[in-house]
Design a protein that fits this description.
This protein is of the alpha+beta class. The protein has a single domain, classed as Ribonuclease P, Pop5 subunit (Alpha-Beta Plaits, 2-Layer Sandwich), CATH 3.30.70.3250. It contains four helices and six strands, in the order βααββαβββα. Strands 2-3-1-6 form a four-stranded antiparallel β-sheet. Strands 4-5 form a two-stranded antiparallel sheet. Helix 1 crosses helix 2 and helix 1 packs across helix 3. The longest helix has 16 residues.
Amino acid sequence: MMRRKIRYILTESAKPVTESDRPQFEQQLYRAMLHSIGELSYHRTNPKIMKFIDDKRFILRCSLDGYTNALLALSIIKKLDVKEAAFYTLKSSGTIKALLKEPKAK
């Protein structure tokens, strides 16, 4: 069995997400991504929030095949239910460790 290739995307939300709102936020984000890129692309992308770094930043996992669809969906989303929302892609990598590593100063 072949291992699926995945990508991790460090994403920042324009509005903070409290600890108690996180499950609802995840469902709203998945629903908005499904709506923006369509069912076939959504299942090819297979998005999942892996970890919240703080109240604004989180790590989104997606398949390598659906990486561009995930980026497009994050840029298209302007509302989650009735609340205004915006998402910014800060960095992407093949591993969480590399994603969280600070860049070296020159």
